[in-house]
């Protein structure tokens, strides 16, 4: 994938895919349990449902706490914006009308298993990355490029963890 020249305002996206030797219902049980995600991510440290929610539904919210070597620690509230078991789960980070990011899992039956995708869009709302860009606007394209590569690597690792759990 190539992000050369992408600026934050371009709302760049990245997507990774993996085939999982398990039916979509089994994969969905893992993907839809966002409290499992910290065990699959170097950055995401914890997730808690808010407002009494116990699982995903459009409008449900959860708080995630993250840590990154260069950005420190932070907390975000995400809003479920799409939930179609066992096919789609998506959430907007921060303001759902102008999110700092949108994340989406897609599941499709394929070859007796599941084609699993994870997609994310950076922006258009401000995020922690916006502050780095504010400090070094001349390096915006490089900052965005490096962060998108980090997302791609982390998403690839996450799909590997989901595959391992689903196939166990």
H-E string: EHEEEEEEHH
Q: For the report, how would you describe the main beta sheet?
A: 7 strands, antiparallel
State the end-to-end CA separation. 30 Å
- CATH level 3 topology of the domain at 8-40 and 84-167: Alpha-D-Glucose-1,6-Bisphosphate, Chain A, domain 4
Q: Taking Cα atoms only, what radius of gyration do you get, to the nearest Å? A: 16 Å
What's the mean pLDDT score?
94
**Fraction of residues in helix:** 25-40%
CATH architecture of the domain at 8-40 and 84-167: 2-Layer Sandwich
Number of separate strands = 7
CATH H-level homologous superfamily name of the domain at 8-40 and 84-167: START domain
Unreliable stretches (pLDDT < 50, length at least 5) are none
CATH domain class name of the domain at 8-40 and 84-167: Alpha Beta
Number of helices: 3
Shape: globular
Q: Quote the beta fraction.
A: 35-45%
Order of adjacent strands in the largest pleated sheet: 1-7-6-5-4-3-2
Q: Tell me the structural class.
A: alpha+beta
Protein name: Cyclase
Pfam family, one: Polyketide_cyc2
Question: Helices, strands, pairings?
Answer:
Layout: E1 13-20, H1 24-31, E2 44-49, E3 61-68, E4 72-84, E5 88-93, E6 101-110, E7 113-122, H2 128-135, H3 140-167
Antiparallel strand pairs: 1-7, 2-3, 3-4, 4-5, 5-6, 6-7
Helix pairs in contact: 1-3, 2-3
